[in-house]
Here is the input.
Amino acid sequence: MTDTLIKVENVSKKFCRSLKRSLRYGIQDLGNELIGRRHGGNGELREDEFWAVKDVSFEVKRGECLGLIGRNGAGKTTLLRMLNGLIKPDKGRIEMRGRVGALIALGAGFNPILTGRENIYVNGAVLGLSKKETGNKIEEIIDFAEIREFIDSPVQSYSAGMTVRLGFAVAAALDPHILLLDEVLAVGDVGFQAKCLNTLSDFRKKGTGFVLVSHNMHQISRYCDQLLYLKGGHVAHCGDVESGIKQFLQHMDANQPSIETEATEWSRVYGSGKVILKNATFLDKDGLPVNHIRTGDTFSLAIDYECPGELVSDTILDIVIRDKEGTLYQGTSADYGVDFGLLSQAGRMIVTFEHMPANSTEVQFFLTLLNAKNGEIYDWKRHIRLKITNNAILNGRVSLTVSWALSNPILNQLEHRTRI
Amino acid sequence: MFRDLMASRELAWQLAVRDIKAQYRQTALGLIWAFILPLANTAAWLMIHNAGIVTVRHTDLPYPIFVFTGTMLWAIFMDSVNAPLQQTIAARPMLAKINFPREALVVSGIYQTLFNAGIKLVVTLAALLIMGVAPGMGLAFFPVALLSLILAGTALGLLLTPIGVLYSDIGKALPLLMQFFMYLTPVVFPMPQSGWAAALFQVNPLTPLIVTARDLLTGMPPAYMDGFMTVNAGMLVLLALVWVVYRAAIPILIERMSA
Here is the structure.
């Protein structure tokens, strides 16, 4: 027996954009299939069709994990469904050895009216366990899902998390040789996620091969041995994980319209206009304008303002910082910021950030100038972007300054033992 | 193919039990739903008949029994025609995401039809006894007639399923068609003696099935044994064919429905 569990050779699949046509092609394909022709035709696209997956090849061996990444609609799920044998490729060949488990739709086939216990038997049967096998494992499943209290209540009274936990518990009882995972590691609370990951690594020790679809680059780089990056159905990268993730992240960046920090791109969300934020510039620590910094740099944000009418007092500048995905780096509160007092007719505010730890390719600043006393918003602007280069570490939101030390390890262990 | 069928028995059983439980757990009337429709149908036809709106030719059996057994048997046949399409459509989310033997859906549909048929038959037999009709020896062969009804229904239902999953027209047209066929089968009227209607009734493959089933149930000598055998043989062949089609169709259907 060879070690290769999954072998995919030049697999392609086409889909149709129009529903009516799609249905008609369905009938055509069915006719072709019945007279023994390959239903994909000769590989030409018919009207309104496109390649959802095109010329994909890879192999997964025992105990290996292949990460599958790409933007939404890149063909990841289609590829998984072909691997699972749900749909047939239009071109190419797929070979799967051993029992295939798929954690794709957790709890599919649950009937909301039946109790959890009844659903375990049904779901087990759907996934290929006999009644006896399920019976042997049912206690294990209930404990794993942590829903013993509710196991005899109807599933429709479960929370979404409970349903998914039950689904995962049943699917995990399968003991598959090949496991296909589609974004399922994002289920449940943190404790349950850790439990899922442990289960998966147990499988892996036994030699199960994985295909893991995830948008979480941290998970991908932690668990995968090789990476397949799909871009519009085509293979953009296949092989080394780290360089694949880098390439993916760069492409994601390139897709964002790049805007320099100039006043024209500022869009006003709201504001009374008593004070107007005219212009913002980033300055490095020597006071020279920059449009990108490196992680860990100290920089300033200089904002030119203008008071067209009467002068105002008690102004504070409120700053919210997010990364491109919208993750909040710094929020704001009533006590945030400094009261600038009475503003002159025109001037410049300077905010200095020491050692910016942001470890993403870009951060966005949302600025609000408001009255500290009555909360009147003078001007509220969004999205000035600051590019950050040279991310020190690949994963995580921030890059902390860390120093490492090992202090007298042997003594520590002894202490530890005596304490026990 | 047959291995898949064997593998799917247990799953089919589980699915059938799940659906039956779920179906009746959420009702107040419970099992009564299994026979309320043919019962209502019978009542309607008795009323029409007694009021003289439609005159029905003399039947060998008392008319109430004729109509009652007819509508009950027809309801069983309808159930089995509807089952494959209904089961497949209801299982779309599961089909699109889990790979399991697809035969299970069809078999599960048959189990459910059998379960509901059982309830209908208990009611029918009770009614027959109350009305003083003794079923006689023929009853021993009735299960065969019942199975042929379900066989024919499943074969026809399965034939429509691949297209029915893609185009919902089929699901909408089916009740209409069935209504039409009911009047071409001796369900509420006896066989016409002459004319084009008689020819149509004769050609209709459902006629021998319904008539034989009713005869066996009511202790009458079965009048259409030859036709009964021929239809059964034909339906077996049809079922085998549509089964192959169904298996081939499912992957194509799944990519088109993408639940």
